[in-house]
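in:
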């Protein structure tokens, strides 16, 4: 993707709407942290004060572009990798290609690393 072609304003850091730029969630009752952020911090039910904002990760600022890039491009990339590999295996398998075993080895290694990456990094999100 050509970064320069995109509108520069996308790179501006915006004050986080959820915590109003403070980095601390005060959306709950009496300035306590809200349920969503409590959940993000892996806390059970109850009132917590001064929790790190779950929306911006406690930074107080959100970079919408980077956020979208990391949260949308990565899954799409790995999904297309997975489907591409499966497609290659099927293609070479049906064609009876002499390189089938090489392709199969390559693809299963690739799939293994993609799956391994997701299971080790985001065990709850994947
Ligand atoms: Zn919150
Ligand atoms: Zn925030």
């Amino acid at each position: 993707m050509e970064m320069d072609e995109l509108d520069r304003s996308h790179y501006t850091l915006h004050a986080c709407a959820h915590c109003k730029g403070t980095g601390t969630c005060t959306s709950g009752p009496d300035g306590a942290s809200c349920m969503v952020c409590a959940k993000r911090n892996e806390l059970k039910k109850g009132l917590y004060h001064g929790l790190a904002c779950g929306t911006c990760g406690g930074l107080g600022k959100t970079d919408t572009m980077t956020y979208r890039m990391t949260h949308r491009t990565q899954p799409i990339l790995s999904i297309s990798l997975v489907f591409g590999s499966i497609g290659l295996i099927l293609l070479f398998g049906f064609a009876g290609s002499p390189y089938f075993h090489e392709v199969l080895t390559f693809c299963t290694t690739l799939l293994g690393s993609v799956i391994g990456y997701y299971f080790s990094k985001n065990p709850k999100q994947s």
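note: The chain has two domains: 7-62, 70-121.
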